Each structure stands twice: as C-alpha cells, then as structure tokens.
Amino acid sequence: MITGAGIRNIKESEEMTFDEIYKQNVDMVLNLAFRMTGKEEMARDITQDVFMKVYQNSDTFREQSKISTWIYRIALNHILNLMRREKRLKFFSTLEKGFSTEPNYDNKITVWEENLPKQPDRNLEEYEKETIIRKMIDELDPKYKIPMLLFRYEDLSYKEIAEQLQISVSAVESQIHRAKKKLATKLKPWLNSL
Question: What are phi and psi of 28, to 5 degrees?
Fold first, then answer.
C-alpha cells in the first residue's frame, strides 16, 4: 500500500506520498477520461475510481516503468471496462425501449475542445468542425472508436495503442483505417463546410 512513506520509483529516484502521486497524475487521468467519454461528471467519477485502484493496488507496482505509465494503464483499462459495460447496458436498454434512441450529447466543453485554436475569427468554425467530427467518432462501434480516440486525442502511436489494447499493431492499423473510412462516409454531407 502507498503510505505516508510513499512509493519508491527507481526511474525517478525519489519517494512520493500518495498525495504527491495524485497531484502529479490527476490531470492526465481526468483528461483521458474526458477524451474517452466526453462526459464531465463521468470523467470525475472515473478519476476518483482510478485513484482508489492505484491506492489499493500500490503493492503491485513493480517499478519497471514510471508511476505515470502504470497509472495511465490502470485508467485506460478502467475506462475500457466501463465503456464495454455501458455498451451492454445500452443494448439491453434499447431492446426494452425499441430502436429509436438517439445518442445524447452534452453541450459542455471537454478537454479536446479546450485545445482548439484561440483565434476569434476561426474559433467558432474550428469548434463546430471538431464537434461534428467528435460526434461522428462517438457513433462508431467501440472496436473502431477506441483506437481512433487514442490516436486522435491522446496522440498515441499505433504501437502504443496496440500495447494499451493488447492487440497487434496491424489490428490497430486496420481498425483506424476502417474508422477513417467510416468517418469519411459519415462526413460526406459536411465536406463543404469542413
């Protein structure tokens, strides 16, 4: 367990308390959760859950990587599991209600929107463009959506995505390629305005 004494990380050559670990990594986890879910409240809940797992599993940290890498992996696994569970729940909910449900998009600004260019004349245009693209990505099957989100918003390489999802690099390449093709088809009506 992480105690007042903290975790010793060989690569960082210093002991850190849980509070220090939290402060150094909370933004990374929160940003990842925002990017993957697009929901502010859910991202905050995920962040809290992730750090509970970090605290509870601190004795499994093997110092073979940076603490931030270990925490990122815990966060990504947690988010992927939630997304899978949510997909199953939506499926059963859809069966109960019928097939007329539409995705619900909040109008809240997420991390990916905050990084848009700040030029006044282009800000609204870029925001609208990115909102359309993000909605289209959200509509993709999770098999394509997750690698695309990691590639586009987390700036992970194909190799890093493969390691995170525990699939081959060629599978990542194929999924992202198919995601781009599906997005191109969905975005055809918007091409003149994008």
Answer: -60, -45
